[in-house]
Hints:
By secondary structure, this protein is of the alpha/beta class. The chain has 2 domains: 81 residues; 191 residues, no CATH class. The chain contains 11 helices and 7 strands. Strands 1, 2, 3, 4, 5, 6 and 7 form a 7-stranded mixed beta sheet that branches. The longest helix has 25 residues. It is globular and about 70 Å long.
Amino acid sequence: MQEFDDIYNIEITKKYHNHENKRLSKRKNRKRAMGAGRYFKLDVKNRFLMLLVYYRLYITYTLAGFLFDLDQSNVYRDIQKIEGLIRKCLPIPQKIYKLTKRLQTPEEVEQYFPGFLAFIDSTTEQQIPRPVNNRRRKAYYSGKKKTHTVKTQVMVSKNGTIIHKAGHKKGRRHDYDIYKKNHPITPKEVVNVFDLGYLGIEKDFPDQLSSLPNRKKRDMKLSQEEIEYNKSHSKIRIVIEHTICRLKKYKILADVFRNKLRKYRKVSDIVSGLINYRIMNHHN
């Protein structure tokens, strides 16, 4: 409750007026004055609450309308109109990444990358409805999940903060291929921790520090030292799995994504920002 009140009182109330002015002024060939037309039945605080309920539970608009005493068409309108504002009020990965690219001193690097570690993963997949178009069906089909999906690559720090998040990619693409074309830049002192899906990264990106587990070769066993190293590597890398778990607690990123894909980035930004806000608020 305290975090909800802080986001609303400190961020939303200050930015709402300017956000509404910009939103209403975008329309060209306006025949009525700005602000004319239907008013929102709910105030800003309850619309923010409705967005959180919708993201967390991913209920239908019909049920959301019943809970908040709205018609289901108004639920869609209210959520859609406030998403841009909420996105501005949260520490989304893009904002943090702009800061981390300019880090200079070791003290600054330590602030955003505790232990000088960064954990990278692009295997977060979410199912989407089966595309009607044959080409899209083929492009979004994931051989790993045996269904149509979108993939999201994320980089997190040691405390679980989401530092970087690439836009969603088609499920057919390999994790490493996504990284090569959308890889985040980290300071030279930071060790980037990967799983075995990124084999070859040390050769392709020799200027960055990379850490991968040992791979078991055919007809050969790993030595005891290699086994122990893999165990310690997994214990360190579990941070990103916990972060992905936090993302999936929001059902809108766990269930079949029923909304338009053009909305996916905005949704994932807001969820990532909510997670970052909680982590930063907890550690502060």
